[in-house]
Design brief:
alpha/beta; five-stranded parallel sheet; 5 strands; globular; 4 helices; 26% helix; single chain
Amino acid sequence: MKLCVFMSEYRSGYDIVKRLEAEKLGIVLVGNSVYHAASDNKAEHCMLPENAELYVLAEDLECRGIETAKLASEFRVVTYPDIVDLIFDEYEKSVWI
């Protein structure tokens, strides 16, 4: 199964994500969880599964004043249209944590 996980609150969801099993796992940080994609929070986002593809929502970064240049390199910045493409083209199932 190809699974896309949306995380709006990073601190209460990463333990659940670590237990998920999927052939392809994508994690999209939205809402306040985008703060954890900043490179100075590297210790926190390394708790995510190593095999996961990591995304962060551009619109949520912008409204919180976080520059994309400050993001950790493992995160790919996506927009709402990109998320639609991910859901329909890349992942079979999605879940919100």
